[in-house]
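Protein Record: Sequence and Backbone Structure Tokens
======================================================
Tokens: labelled as protein backbone structure tokens, with as many entries as the chain has residues.
Task: work out the structure tokens from the sequence, keeping to the layout shown below.
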Amino acid sequence: MIPGTSYSPAKALIDFIKEFFEALAKEDYQKALWKLDVSEIRWTKEDLKNKLKEAIGDEKICSPLGFSRSASPKLEKTEKGYRLRHRLPVSGKWVDAKVIFEFNQKSHSGYFKVLLKGFER
């Protein structure tokens, strides 16, 4: 769960994604997974590694800090909150493969449940 606001969620959600990528760049899979809420998919370190490999092959996630180009994330409103598709940082650039998260706002609060839905090529 992460804090955010219903009137301007994009910044909080994008900040979360940056932290997620930083953890993956350091191959700290536990840290990448620690803010996820339980959903129909129970992510493990091995699941995350395998799904990343399916999405980007043997490439590694790198830190997006200092990237001058935008990843052009796509934030969509859903019935429960937001769905975010965000390109992955690989070898110093944004690639076409994306991570997909859902952020469902907890009733009567500024908090969002964080659900990793998977990756797409």
